[in-house]
Design a protein that fits this description.
Layout: E1 2-5, E2 15-22, E3 27-32, E4 38-40, E5 44-48, E6 56-60, H1 76-79, E7 83-86, E8 95-100, E9 105-112, E10 117-122, E11 130-134, E12 141-149, E13 154-161
Antiparallel strand pairs: 1-2, 2-5, 3-4, 3-6, 7-8, 8-11, 9-10, 9-12, 12-13
Length: 162
Amino acid sequence: GGVAYGGGSYYWGDTAHIGIYLYDSVIFERWSNADFVQVSSQPEYTYPVTHTEIFTASVDASKLKDKDVDPPIEDTTVSGKNIRVYPNPLMDGQELNILSDKENLQSIRLFSTAGKHILYRKFSEDGVKSVRLRLPHLEAGCYFYEIGLTGDSRKIGKLIKL
């Protein structure tokens, strides 16, 4: 249903900020703790760390929002839609290119398959048409990306790094 972030190790007294980036066709319902007790009804939740805790996000993919006709994850390298992300798979030494038909690219977020937030880059508040990123420290593996577009829309896809 989305990509959760904020997981990891924290010290007692820290504040953990957890949240979820939802795919377009998914509706957030609640965060629950390990005892299945609801702790929040908001997609973002702040937890003062006092002990080990496991949180679960509950989502509903059965109710599609308006205009949702595509699957929640799409690899836009093949989709022919307005955004193209290539090369995918990405090899060592290659730059990641993001192209759009319009000047609407604002940012990119990159997540591991476990939901760990790996990278955030802001391109422009007004939007640009193309971006080239060097990712020399990105380890081999599978990642999810979220490209922020003007007008609060976004494109979500997967990226393979070889």
